[in-house]
């Protein structure tokens, strides 16, 4: 996605505003401080990510709460996410719900995606933020993790806590609230934002699991996702599908064309009309993710090879040197 393509559900933005203040008059003032018109909060439109970041800034200033994101996130319930929340809530296990979250994340926001990375202790749920031109507030990351834990606790009926929490920021003056919400002391100044969950936690059944209801909600969610995709260019749709499928080896052109309900020739023609081609989009996605993994995470090089869908380390190294004129190891040391 390019700047301007990243958008956020109006329902999610409204929930942030309503959490900040129940007063209609105060909400209007907050929107004014965020340089947003109240008319933009009507209908089925979506906010740009920069508009959403400005809204967060105005809400944070109004709340005067250093833990605003945590407090907002921990009160989130499945209904906050509407059709996505109901789909997740009726999934069989927490792991199934997380898989569906990534599948339908765009209906909530284009601003980030979860990645599951296995480790000796369990599974890391790493959150990759996707800002536009304005950087995220740390409150936005706090809200994501607090909401994830609130959802897990609500749907399983268990007081779930992660093994570890990794935050890519300096430690606050006091982290008692982080300890209260996460039930563990976070590790600060880390290279990525993520929470580490025991594998058995992810296999916990959900209290409201209902296969029939889940399928019904999923049909609705898929319809809305398809409608949203149609608003974007073919290039944007292809880039998103590639990014979602890279480490599953289902990102090749025939499979992408089939997912978009078109022939390979039609896909090639549409991309050509937009001044690009499938290979260029694949290279752009891989290069962007490779730079991110190497500069902002400690994921081993052999795992990055798999995450980017390369067949072996040699293919990844050659491609990366073609993009940057240096090998991955040198790039990581430099950054």
Proper CATH architecture of the largest domain: Alpha-Beta Complex
Structure summary, number of beta strands: 6
Residue runs with pLDDT of under 50 for 5 or more positions? none
Top-tier CATH class of the largest domain: Alpha Beta
Average pLDDT score:
90
| Category from helices, strands and their pairing | alpha+beta
Number of domains: 2
In one word, what is the shape? globular
Oligomer: single chain
Question: Which strand-content bin applies to the residues?
Answer: 5-15%
How many angstroms does the end-to-end distance come to?
23 Å
CATH homologous superfamily of the largest domain, by name?
Answer: H-NOX domain
What's the story with the biggest beta sheet?
Answer: 4 strands, antiparallel
Q: In DSSP terms, counting alpha (H) and pi (I) runs of 4 or more, how many helices? A: 17
**CATH fold-type name of the largest domain:** H-NOX domain
